[in-house]
Amino acid sequence: MTAPREAIYQALFKLVLPLQGLPQGKLLAPKPFRLVTRTIKEVQRIDPADQPILMMYEWNEETLFQGTSLSSKKWTTIFIIGATHPPDVPGSTILNPLADAVEAALLPPNPQDDEQTLGGLVTRVVVKGTAAKDHGDNSTKTDQRQSAYYLPVEIILPNS
C-alpha cells in the first residue's frame, strides 16, 4: 500500500527544512536559506530580505501501468532556489553552493544506504532531470540581481 501523498511530501520537506536559518539578528550557526517553504511565488516577487529562499514545488505525478492491474508511480518535485546578489557578483557563485546544500540534504541518512526512502515511505528519492539556472545577470535593476535555480527531484513509489 502506498503511503498517503501528504505524508510523503511532508517527509521530503522535512529533509530540507533544517537548511532554514534564524531571523536576522539571531546568533547561531548560519544556514544557507533565510526561508524554506512549500508556498510557491515567483522569485522576483519575494522580498530580498527573505532571500535566499528555497521553495518546494510539487510538480508532476505520473502513474505507469505495468499490466495485470500493477502500476507504479513517479512524481517530480522541483526545488526552487531564489537569491539576490549585487550586480558585480555572478549569480552562479551564489546559486551553486545553495544547490549543493539542497542535494546534500536529500542524501540517504546513512552513508551505507544506497537510496533515500523517506523512512520507507517510498522506493527512492533522487535528484534526476535537467536543472535550470537563471543567473540573473540580465536584470535591469542597478542595485541588485535576481537569480534562480530549479532542481528536479524524482520520487519513485512502490508498485501498487
Description of the molecule:
This protein is an alpha+beta fold and 160 residues long. It has a single domain (5-157), classed as STM4215-like. Helix content is 17%, strand content 32%. Strands 1, 2, 3, 4, 5 and 6 form a six-stranded mixed sheet that branches. The model has no long low-confidence stretch (mean pLDDT 89).
Low-confidence stretches: none
End-to-end Cα distance: 6 Å
Order of helices and strands: HEEEHEEE
Q: How would you name the CATH homologous superfamily?
A: Phage tail protein-like
- The dominant shape is elongated
Count of the separate structural domains? 1
Mean pLDDT: 89
Q: What structural category do the secondary elements indicate?
A: alpha+beta
Total number of beta strands: 6
Beta-strand share of residues: 25-35%
CATH class reads: Alpha Beta
Briefly note the CATH topology name.
STM4215-like
- CATH architecture, by name, is 2-Layer Sandwich
Question: If you compute it from the alpha carbons, what radius of gyration comes out, rounded to the nearest whole angstrom?
Answer: 17 Å
Count of helical stretches: 2
